[in-house]
Amino acid sequence: MDRELYVPRSWTCVPDRCQAAGLGEDTAFATEPEPAARMIGRFLDAGHHVGWVAGDEVYGGNSKPRTALEDRGVGYVLAVACSHEATTGAGKFRADALTAKAPGPRPVDDRLCLQGILYVLYNDISW
């Protein structure tokens, strides 16, 4: 596995604070999904294999982890906001509108969508 220290913007904008904490001068702010995408890359580059990855809305709402997984052919389950827009062959739709159009059993419980969360299983659900 892998790890990276998440350094919030409130720290990276105060160089003295970073220096006192032993962080290098090149320490820069990055949203949580950015190091996640780098860690996924390093994990797969090391020859490890994984069938799928799961993450919350912080990761599902950011294109970097999704792109890193899609580029490598790794399936994923990432939460997205109901207002998240996805492009399909039929056009661009909000995530909650897509679930309403999905044939068969609902892919998620309506209550989850009302809370702003939609789980999409890439590679298994075809819109």
Molecular structure report:
InterPro entries: IS701-like_DDE_dom. This is Transposase IS701-like DDE domain-containing protein. It comes from Streptomyces macrosporus. The protein has 127 residues and is α+β, with helices and mostly antiparallel strands. It is extended and about 55 Å long. It has a domain of 71 residues. The C terminus is likely disordered. Strands 1-2-5 form a three-stranded mixed sheet. The protein is built from seven helices and five strands. It starts with 8 loop residues before the first helix and ends in a 6-residue tail after the last strand. Helix 3 runs parallel beside helix 5.
Q: Quick recap of the structure?
A:
The chain is α+β, with helices and mostly antiparallel strands. The chain has helices spanning 9-12, 15-20, 33-45, 57-60, 63-72, 95-101, 110-114, and strands spanning 52-55, 75-80, 85-88, 91-94, 118-121. The chain is extended.
The shape is extended
Rg from C-alpha positions?
Answer: 18 Å
State the share of residues found in helices, binned by percent. 25-40%
Provide the β-strand percentage band: 15-25%
**Unreliable segments of 5+ consecutive residues:** 110-127
How many individual helices? Answer: 7
Helix-strand category: alpha+beta
Number of extended strands: 5
What is the arithmetic mean of pLDDT? Answer: 79
Topology order in helix (H) and strand (E) letters: HHHEHHEEEHHE
Largest sheet: 3 strands, mixed
Write out the strand line-up for the largest beta sheet, numbering strands in chain order.
1-2-5
Distance between the termini: 33 Å
